[in-house]
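Researcher: Following up on the earlier apo prediction. This time include the ligand. It's zinc ion, with the SMILES given after the sequence.
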Amino acid sequence: MTTNAQAPQKTPAPALCEPCAGIQRHWRKAPGHAELVQGTHHREDRGNGQASFTRYRCDRCGAAWEYENNKANQHAGWALLAH
Ligand SMILES: [Zn+2]
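Model: Understood. Below is the ligand-bound prediction.
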């Protein structure tokens, strides 16, 4: 007699969809993709200039992104907030 012991179900972290995975992060002027839906927007004063932040949510995989636009920072760009 055999018992069909089931392997414990793994719940892998959901993968980013292909266009999200292809976003170049933390790089000024890197493009997003067509399925990002624009959300809230705010500005912050960073001493050497204004930075503006725009939230996006991916329609395909649900990832939450924030895009920072800051002329003084070459590494301001896409950041993944939650997924
Ligand atoms: Zn996505």
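Model: Residues 16-17, 19-20, 58, 60-61, 63 surround zinc ion (CB under 6 Å).
Researcher: Noted. I'll compare it with the apo version next.
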